[in-house]
Amino acid sequence: MRGGPKIEQLDAQQWFEVIKLQMPDGRIARVLETWIELSPNYVCFYNKWDPGVVGPRHGHEGDHSILITKGSISDGVHECTPGSHIMLEHGDLFGPWEAGPEGCEMYGVIMGRGPSFSDNAEWVALLAERGITALPVPVPPIPPWLRGMAVLPTESADA
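RESULT FIELD:
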């Protein structure tokens, strides 16, 4: 117990790349993320997706709530715009997602430690099908209690 609220400003957070792609037209498209609050009980995050960037089909080990705040994102079936709420239960798979023409920003909470899981072969095949190359991203600052957990795949179709 903290004894009161902990207040954070989004602009003051450390941001890091979690996805970096070279698109068929040569441009670089990224997903930037910050962990507003990271604890063994939950992860509060904010993502900024560049226009057209794609993310792999994946899930998390924990219930997962996402609110779209700007732009749009689609899984090919659902077009999620500002105010859309996405709820996934522990182990649900979702995606692949693609950011709309204005990109996308989202706030989310994952209960528990929240490590992700995905089918890397499926991700590599999707990138190859679209002519996209995944570029390496630095490992984000992982606290000791979360080390060794799965992260989103970053291999390119050529790997």
